[in-house]
Amino acid sequence: MEAGVKEIFDSVILRFGGELWIKRAWTRRMYKRRLVRNIKNVLRRYEVPYSEIVSRHGRLFLRTGSALEATQRLARVFGVSSVSPALEVGSSKLEDVVDRSVFLAGRVLGEGNSFAVRCRRVGDHPYSSSDVCIVVGRRILDEFGEERSLKVDLKGADVGLGVEVRGDEAFVYSAVVDAVGGMPLGTQAKVVGLLSGGIDSAVACWLVMKRGCPVVPVYFDNAPYTDETTNERAIEVANALFDWAVGFPRKMYVVPHGDNLKKIIENCSRRFTCLLCKRMMYRVAERLAEVVGAEGIVTGEAIGEQASQTLTNLRVLNTAAQKYPIHRPLLGFDKAETERIARKIGTYKPSTRKAKGCTAVPKKPATMAILKEVMEAEKKLEIEEMVEKSFHSSRTLSE
Amino acid sequence: MEAGVKEIFDSVILRFGGELWIKRAWTRRMYKRRLVRNIKNVLRRYEVPYSEIVSRHGRLFLRTGSALEATQRLARVFGVSSVSPALEVGSSKLEDVVDRSVFLAGRVLGEGNSFAVRCRRVGDHPYSSSDVCIVVGRRILDEFGEERSLKVDLKGADVGLGVEVRGDEAFVYSAVVDAVGGMPLGTQAKVVGLLSGGIDSAVACWLVMKRGCPVVPVYFDNAPYTDETTNERAIEVANALFDWAVGFPRKMYVVPHGDNLKKIIENCSRRFTCLLCKRMMYRVAERLAEVVGAEGIVTGEAIGEQASQTLTNLRVLNTAAQKYPIHRPLLGFDKAETERIARKIGTYKPSTRKAKGCTAVPKKPATMAILKEVMEAEKKLEIEEMVEKSFHSSRTLSE
Questions:
Q1: A172 and A71, same structural domain?
Q2: Based on the domain organization, do A155 and A249 belong to the same domain?
Q3: Closest CA–CA distance from residue B327 to any residue of chain A (Å)
Q4: Are B164 and B195 part of one and the same domain?
Q5: Which A-chain residues 351-380 have CB contacts (< 8 A) with chain B?
Q6: Is the backbone peptide bond immediately before B350 cis, with ω within 30 degrees of 0?
Q7: Inside any domain, residue B225
Q8: What does the alpha-carbon distance between residue B121 and residue B83 come to, in Å, rounded to a whole number?
Q9: Which residues of B touch A18 (CB under 8 A)?
Q10: What chain B residue is nearest to A325 in terms of C-alpha separation?
Q11: Does A178 touch chain B if contact means CB atoms closer than 8 Å?
């Protein structure tokens, strides 16, 4: 969007993804209500003024004098598929629609630009969508065509002018900004997210948030095998994630896990340290899920990404979670793909700040652990007692 | 790549993803051995002639007179991150490297092109990488610079000339083709993949294949609630997937499931039909996993994608799998993202061919099923008997 057109817009058009339309009417209404609530929370948090938000024929329209800022903020609300700053026409009469379109064209079309006009129309009108395109296109050429050397290009236009006619209202716009997509946060059940502060777990949490699940992050504090830098990194990453969940609690659970890890190292084969550590984490996460009313546990594991994450080891890990599914949205991702998302969502920078790595990691971890051996190793630990102790000594961090 | 340069290449450079380099030496060797085997299988299947494939300093080099075809085929081998058709220099002497580079430049640089030279060097040589770039660049400008109006552009060059010097060998190339990435197929344990023939399950299977897991596909034949068109669609989709697993068995298990579905409909609340149907599928898949030695089960479920796939319902589904983890690589995907991958991997077309949808799907499926109610419903079924019967009446389809 050009800087010079800043002040002309008076509204924003919000579009939803195609997935919403295959839902039943009841579900759709519930999703839309939740989306509107999430949108209002974002506008309030960033102090973006607006007068009204209305739902019409499968779109949301926001009336605001800060259309560009609203566009930028709302493109990051889950459930929104694209956003356009727009001009309200005030009626759906053809001449009004054409006038307003030509006005916008006059502001956004530059010397030598090619342009195309597209119209979407819902409702009964004495004109067709292609009438709108033809009349608007002709008027633009008549008014500035020669002076600015404009030309029509229906395929690769520099500027696409859009006209939306919905019942007795109409809007015109000149840019469609891709938004994050997904489903409105809060339309699915809660999950507990194992958040290490590293790149993967943050992206995993974000991906389930994108599908509508509020995430309750839990961080396992492995001190003395890690230190304050590791904790601070996790807090920063959690904050970056919370920015995607405006209106939801900004609260992270911190579980002291160093004692457990110490017992694991002292009593069991070093080959199994990471597996046993993680199995304990799953168990504590299950306790937490019960208490917060979550329906699953999310982790950042990807197949083969680390020694503990071979497919064989994932199976060994899974048996530690008895009541809740372990969801692994990164299962099929390459590291490079995960990093690309982390950059996009703002967790890459905090995830890669300097932090102490866990010193309990052994030199030769088991890559193909056998469940029976792992279970045997765990017999040397007071598993239940350890879980209860960890769970009850956990604290929450919130802003 | 220009058509005119077809015949000049005599070799192909294959590069691996960054993930391979963080593995331990033993794992890396095993991965590379597997990759070479997979590559040979692809070349054999498509009858691409080659004389040798050698591993040098973190690259594979293939000597072949069909470099362009090999490039196209090998870009679709899991574990390969990029491919370049190349010219072998035959020595690593600077003058030979320069001669060969200039020869290639003469073939690929067109009128008005901008170009850049890049060199990667491993080993001891009496020249540096930037020496190579400077000398080659200068020679190119001397020989054809004026005549073809060439210019150097280090950032956005039309043609990037690459020089790879590895020990006493060297190769030059002019194009880097992005490959599929991931890990060599067969470096992870097997999984059983629930393949419906629809878009999602095929992409889910492909994603775990990409991470190295061979997939044993199983299809549940719901006749009379589906028909031959549904079966044919699944077979076509399986064949598209098998093309990504050259050298691995092209075998799909088909389980008669209509009787189970009939019993579910007759005995249990219609709200639970899809959940109970899927729980049965998981159980049969577990039996199959035992027999084929798989370590997990893969499904195409994504959060909220269908009524049976709310997070709450996924938890209800999970309890049916007692021994194997249910892996859901699409968990965090929007439908549009899944479709994009399906198009890329060649399963979209077969997945969307005309096929009868399952007529057992109820009008009002439960979106927030309560586990206790589902368990109660299952009491009316002879679950174990049904599983055993299905499993033993399954047949395999192979080419």
A1: yes
A2: no
A3: 7
A4: no
A5: 367
A6: no
A7: yes
A8: 17
A9: 335-336
A10: B315
A11: no
Chain A interface includes B241 (CB < 8 A): no
Tell whether B118 and B200 lie within a shared domain.
no
pLDDT beneath 50, residues of chain A = 1-5
Alpha-carbon distance B335 to A127, whole Å?
35
Q: Among A143, A178, A213, which residue terminates a domain?
A: A178
Check A367 against B27: CB less than 8 A apart. Answer: yes
pTM of the model: 0.93
Q: How confident is the model at residue B6, as a pLDDT?
A: 55
The whole-number average pLDDT for the span B61-88 is 96
ω into A126 cis (within 30 of 0) = no
Between CA B324 and CA A39 the distance in angstroms is: 40
Q: Is there a domain that residue B161 lies in?
A: yes
Could you tell me the CATH number of the domain that includes residue A24? 3.30.2130.30
| A207–chain B nearest CA distance, Å | 5
Q: Closest Cα partner for B182 from B76, B339, B253? A: B76
Q: Which residues contact A188 (CB under 8 A, 6 or more apart)?
A: A211, A212, A213, B303, B304, B310, B311, B312
ipTM of the complex: 0.91
Instruction: Please name the residue that has the structure tokens 């000049």.
Output: B8
**A325/B17 Cβ within 8 A:** no
The mean per-residue pLDDT over the stretch B29-49 comes to: 95
Query: Same structural domain for residues B153 and B277?
Result: no
Q: Tens digit of pLDDT for each residue in B5-36?
A: 457 899 999 998 777 777 778 888 889 999 99
The residues near B99 (Cβ < 8 Å, ≥ 6 apart) are none
- Evaluate whether residue B262 is within a structural domain: yes
**What's residue A1's pLDDT?**
46
Interface mutation vs chain A, best among B211, B306, B371, most A CBs within 10 Å = B211
Question: Could you report the per-residue pLDDT of B269-306, keeping only the tens digit for each?
Answer: 999 999 999 999 999 999 999 999 999 999 999 998 88
Instruction: Please give the residue of chain B at the shortest CA–CA distance from A187.
Output: B304
Nearest of A336, A324, A327 to residue A295 by alpha carbon: A324
- Within this chain, do residues B249 and B205 fall inside the same structural domain, yes or no? yes
In this complex, do A304 and B187 lie within 8 Å of one another by their Cβ atoms?
yes
Using the 3D structure, point to which of B122, B144, B178 is the last residue of a domain. B178
Domain, as residue range, for A147:
3-178
A-B interface: how many C-beta pairs under 8 angstroms?
Answer: 127
Q: Do both A170 and A237 map to the same domain? A: no
Q: Looking at the domain assignment, is residue B97 inside a domain?
A: yes
State how many domains chain A has: 2
pLDDT at residue A27 in the model: 84
Residue B2 — pLDDT band, cuts 50, 70, 90? very low
Q: State yes or no: pLDDT of B126 exceeds 60.
A: yes
Residue B293 contacts A where some CB pair is shorter than 8 Å: no
Residues A151 and A270 in one domain: no
| Contact residues for B37 (Cβ-Cβ < 8 A; gap 6+) | B186, B247
